[in-house]
Amino acid sequence: MIRSVLFVCALALAACTPAQEAKEEAPVADNAVPAPTPDDVAVRINAAQNGQTVNVAVNQRFAIELVGVPTAGYLWTPAQVPAFITRAGEASGNTSEAQSQPGFAGGNHWEVTMFAATGPGTGEIVMEQRRPWESSEPPVETFRVTIVAQ
Question: Is the model's pLDDT at 24 over the cut of 50?
Fold first, then answer.
């Protein structure tokens, strides 16, 4: 009985608590693991920046960090890359701590593709999520970002 009353009081207090102000960074879910992007990457681009323009410096690596489902065969791959941009590495990893536990199968994973601007320019990188063997099918998802290299 006392536990029930305490639980109801706690719920009532939580409902009266003012909402938190928006933060600059997106909230991270419990047990979330950050993208496995190397420390030497100067600019990190994530899914929230789809359709946006991002400035990068010439000769510095930048990364596009997307969550995919490679365990089901769906991979993020560059479908369009401007001539002044070159691929500069890849990384992948778990999105949650639970995926490191024995017996865990499947789930979403980070897919990080690194690039570098070899010269100044402006152009769009298009990333598509698809199964490589289903090339005639439309992509499941598309990510676009305009890169301005200076």
Answer: no
CA distance 61 to 149: 11
Q: What pTM does this model have?
A: 0.75
Quote the tokens at residue 17: 């608590």
Give which of 25, 113, 119, 118 is closest to 62, Cα–Cα. 113
Q: Note the pLDDT of residue 135.
A: 85
Q: What are phi and psi of 76, to 5 degrees?
A: -85, 125
Per the rule left: phi > 0, alpha: psi between -120 and 50, beta: everything else, 105 is: beta
The DSSP string of the chain is: -HHHHHHHHHHHHHHHSPPPPPPSSPPPPTTB------TT-SEEEEGGGTT-EEEE-BT-EEEEEEEEBGGGTBEEEEEE--TTEEEEEEEEEESBGGGGSTT-----EEEEEEEEESS-EEEEEEEEEE-GGGTTSPPSEEEEEEEEE-
